[in-house]
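Mods, move this if it's the wrong board.
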Amino acid sequence: MTRRLRYLIALAIAAVVMTTATSPTEGFALLSSKWPNGPVVMHLRMGGGSGTLIDGSTSWNQVVTNGLAAWNAHIQLVSFSAVNDSTAANGDGNGLNTVFFSDTVYGDAFGESTLAVATSWSFAGGRKAESDVIFNRAKPFNSYRGNLRSGATDILRVAIHEFGHTLGLDHPDEEGQNVDAIMNSHVSNRDSLAADDINGARSLYGSGITSNVTFPPRNETADFVNRLGALYRDELRSGGFATFVDAEGAGVWVPEYARFRVGQCSHEVASQRVFQTITDGIASGVCALTPAGAIPFPPRNEGLQFFVSLNGLYRDTLRRGQITSFVDEEGLVVWILEYLRYRLNRCSHEVAVQKVFMQIRGQGIQPTC
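Not the wrong board. Structure tokens:
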């Protein structure tokens, strides 16, 4: 086996602000090895309790576990698994992945500005065998979000960076690239994964599975939503309902949520992946192939929970203005999902529209096609 070390360097805060202000170009950088598919077990040996940290965390293990979870949310073929307060021995090249504080890197001195080191042991052919993450005990670690603070090094962003090396990502800024990424070689005001980091991890371990179910084109779903609004206005004499999600947004993102749910994703994962697409432009595959037989759809209460959260995202993150809709939130979600259920069960656009409208008019649930 061969070993490689990767370091994260601390810079003065003023210098970091300048480096994070540049515009992104090109993309991520990769090391020469990656893990085989499956779990990557990390043995956390961060020592005793740390007291209450700035962000309210009560132990180093808690924070470091959050760093592992940050990557797990975006990759499919491998996943980190944490063993808290592990009794496994630290050892260079012993086949175990350990995470711990130390005064040295297995006997070698840390660099003066080095915050942490990730080792990388791999077999010939690029199959990763071991990766230890060693935090420099001499540095003033704490845990907080936002811009860097003088005299307190945020261990979470350092941990996320080092676990990126564990996965097989390198420093893009040392490869001639100018990108916003937590994987750059210097700690910065970025305290979470950037799109470039996620794209790099997904290039190694996938972003999900290509769905085996074809949803209707967006223009047809948009036509249904517009006709639904007209039905509520002209036949049901509906009054206006305040919302922040316009008809186009509802016609795009409710079907995306349904696509993930039909693709065997949980409510939480489906919501997270839709919101990530909206905020970061990062598309994901589904969680598993849809089984043969009746196509499963999410229950109405979970669809409504999604739309309420979507409305909050439009209001608080996208800063959209309030608008008026003739269709209330529950009606919008229920009937879009019903329209999609008919479409995925071989009904044409027009037939699906008419079957939904028959339900709304009190004629009962219609058979699929």
